[in-house]
Amino acid sequence: MAEHEDHGGGFLGGFFVGALLGALAGILFAPKSGKELRDELKRKGEDAFEEAKHAYSEASSKAKAIVEDARVRADELRREANRQVAEAREKAREILKGAEDKAAEVIDEAKSEVKKVKGAMGAGVQAARQELSKGEEKKG
User: Fold this and answer.
1) For the segment 3-17, what is each residue's pLDDT rounded down to a tens digit?
2) pLDDT of 54 strictly over 70
3) How far apart are the first and last CA of the chain?
């Protein structure tokens, strides 16, 4: 019989705890009046708007930072490209100057060879004339 009474007390205690929890849940989840509901919706809407403004502000700041970083990198790339173009131009000038110098040397050598050939031809023509005049003297 002691066991039976123990179950009865446990049942009664559980009943009271359940009733208390049910009442608390009823209070927490009870429908609100129209004014309370509107006020809560307004507050939640304002909270959501403030969160959206904050998120927009953060996104805008990040976007500005990204754009500025991209601009700085583009400037660096532009300066590097200009530097490389200037170096390439200078190397081209050096190569062209070297080619001009070499061409001038070749032209000078060619002129010298032409003078030698001209001199040799002149000497050949002179020798031929002398030989012709000797041959004419012998005939004569």
Assistant:
1) 444 555 677 677 778
2) yes
3) 180
Q: For the CA atoms of the chain, what is the radius of gyration?
A: 55
Write the DSSP string, the chain: -HHHHHHHHHHHHHHHHHHHHHHHHHHHTSPPPHHHHHHHHHHHHHHHHHHHHHHHHHHHHHHHHHHHHHHHHHHHHHHHHHHHHHHHHHHHHHHHHHHHHHHHHHHHHHHHHHHHHHHHHHHHHHHHHHHHHHHHHHH-
Q: Which residue bears the tokens 């509107």?
A: 38
pLDDT at site 1? 44
User: Which tokens sit at 139?
Assistant: 């005939």
- The residues near 40 (Cβ < 8 Å, ≥ 6 apart) are 32
CA dihedral 109, 111, 116, 120 (to 10 degrees): 140
Residue 8 pLDDT? 54
Q: CA-CA distance, 29 to 136, in Å (whole number)?
A: 147
Stretch among 20-24, 46-50, 90-94, 97-101 having the lowest mean pLDDT: 20-24
